[in-house]
Amino acid sequence: MKKVFGLLICLALLLLCAVAAADQGLDCGDECVSFHISDSSVNIGEEIEIAYQVNDPDVKILEVRWGRNQYGYYTVSGITLPSGVFKKTEWNGGTYYLEFHYERTDGQIYQTKAEVAVNGITADIKYVWPGEPYDIGVGDTLSVEYSVHSPIENISIETNWCIGTNGATGTTDGHQDQLSGTASIILGEEYEWVFFQVCVSDEQKTRTYCLVCGDTVPVRKNVPMIESEIVDSGYCGEKLTWALNDKGLLMIDGTGDMSDFLYDDSKAWCKYRDSIKNVVIREGATSIGAFAFSSCFYLESIEIPEGVTDIGEHAFFYCSLKSVSLPHSLVNIETMAFNRSELRSIWIPENVAFIGAGGLSNCRQLSEITVSESNPYYSSAEGILYTKDGITPCQYPAGREDTCYRVPDGATQIKECVFDGCSKLTEVYLPDSVLSIENAAFYECSNLVSINIPSGLNSINDDFYGCGKLSVISIPAGNTYAIQWFRDHGFEKILSIVD
Fold first, then answer.
1. Where among 196, 219, 242 does a domain terminate?
2. 437 burial level (CB within 10 Å; 0-12, 13-18, 19+)
3. In the predicted model, is pLDDT for residue 150 greater than 90?
4. Do the strands 450-452 and 472-476 form a parallel or antiparallel pair, or are they unpaired?
5. pLDDT attached to residue 169
6. CA of residue 371 relative to chain centroid, distance
7. In CATH, what number is assigned to the domain containing residue 139?
8. Which residues have a Cβ under 8 Å from the Cβ of 138 and sit 6 or more positions away?
9. Res 195: pLDDT
10. Where residue 253 sits, what CATH number does that domain have?
């Protein structure tokens, strides 16, 4: 009862603040939404309560989301405005955010969020190997020593082994266990991989949370290269294996999608990034995971087979790859896929339907992008990537030698990252048809000296970061939005207002 009473008082105070702000004509700035959190740190199974208040009646709420950064978000429905209390119970640990995305009267999109830490279940595990770590095969016994740590009491523990067999996944029979102990498994002839997991249930067994403990352990018979050359090996997808030899050759074999990775990941081959020189992906794979080969500074070549349809975000970010042959089956090149790589040129096949923002940007050696004439979504002219109609530039190669570029008449948008890293450009001309400049469009255009702003341009999401030599911004006197935007962002001294 006290907790509910406290929340009601907080909501009342929030409402009083909102009324006072409205009476004084206050601009809510970036804090148009305020929060009061009953407890910023809760345990799994405990209810989270967040009181929220929209302080400016003129803002337009676009979306309210709830989730965790690394696991994604979902849209919250049933939000009452202008105030209310969001309640949620989570059984997964981590930092959660309640995000309000809204549009202010100035047309800009803002985000305000509340943060709650959920204390989850963790486990320590130590594999006990019969020989060398990860060098294990059919007939060997693999053991683990485990210890489970839970922020709540009265939980039940069940441990089991997950087993991959001929493309299928199964588990051993579960055992009711203590919070710590040991477990073993004898690897069968059909086993392809195994890993250990702990499943935790609440006292009423209404909720169960399974915690994967330790790396996936490949069974030796599936290694695609001779054992004497292997540096390390394992799984990189539900049905994909990998093996790295002492010559820097990474072989990927099997079927299906490749797992996604994180930039600072240590799983699979990530800890050997500096050792990888050549990559061969055999037929059967259908995707290249996010960050798969990012920061592979010595990567010389990669063979991508037909059947691959998706190259994940940041897949070749900051790698030394100088050339690549994309398969005809490719459909998607995700955000930042080849960003900051050392590509010299690239050909876009006929089935590519999507190239994400920055997918080919800031490649300082890239001088030419060509597109299959059969592609219905993209085209190229003079080595520049355009939409199919040849009007809107999608990517200007950062390695082009030209110093001036004129955006074609009819283009309405300067796309995100389109000139990212184009350090040779000194002047860009925008036609009157351009209405918006998107995020990072001119990022690190370090030698850009002048740019004109069209009279109808009414949306700017780029801060012109890294444009240190920009000295002339020409804006028609009638475009008050653009004039005010550049003044607000520190460009007052280089504005040239023209009649």
1. 219
2. buried
3. no
4. parallel
5. 55
6. 26
7. 2.60.40.1930
8. 187, 188, 189, 191, 219, 220, 221
9. 79
10. 3.80.10.10
pLDDT of 157 above 70: yes
Residues 214 and 89 in one domain: no
* Order of strands across the sheet that contains 332-333: 287-288, 310-311, 332-333, 354-355
User: How many structural domains compose the chain?
Assistant: 4
Range(s) of the domain holding residue 152: 122-219
Spatial separation of the C-alpha atoms in residues 286 and 474, rounded to whole Å: 48
* Predicted local confidence at residue 70, as pLDDT: 52
| Residue with tokens 């990860």, as numbered in its chain | 134
pTM higher than 0.85: no
- The number of C-alpha atoms within 13 Å of 35 and in the hemisphere containing its C-beta is 19
Of 184, 219, 254, the last residue of a domain is: 219
Split at pLDDT 50, 70, 90, the class of 96 is very high
Spatial distance between the Cα atoms of 147 and 164, rounded to a whole number of angstroms: 24
Same domain, 135 and 101: no
Dump pLDDT digits (tens) for 233-277. Answer: 999 998 999 999 988 899 999 999 999 998 777 778 988 999 999
Length of the chain equals 499
Whole-number mean pLDDT of the chain?
A: 85
C-beta pairs of 242-246 under 8 Å, 24+ apart in sequence: 242/268, 242/269, 244/269, 244/272, 244/275, 244/276
* SS3 category, 395: strand
pLDDT of residue 172: 63
Contact 480, 459 (CB under 8 A): no
- What is the pLDDT averaged over residues 416-443? 95
Asked if 234 and 357 sit in the same domain, the reply is yes
Binning pLDDT at 50, 70 and 90, where does residue 486 land?
Answer: very high
| Average of per-residue pLDDT across 203-226 | 62
* Residues in Cβ contact with 4 at an 8 Å cutoff, skipping those fewer than 6 apart: none
Q: Do 75 and 181 fall into the same domain?
A: no
Following DSSP, what letter does each residue of 237-305 receive, concatenated?
A: SSSEEEEEETTSEEEEEESBPPPP--TT--STTGGGGGG--EEEEPBTB-EE-TTTTTT-TT--EEE--
108 contacts: CB under 8 Å, gap ≥ 6: none
Contact 399, 386 (CB under 8 A): no
What pLDDT score does 190 carry?
75
199 and 158 Cβ atoms separated by less than 8 Å:
yes
Residue in 442, 438, 491 with CA at minimum distance from that of residue 464? 442
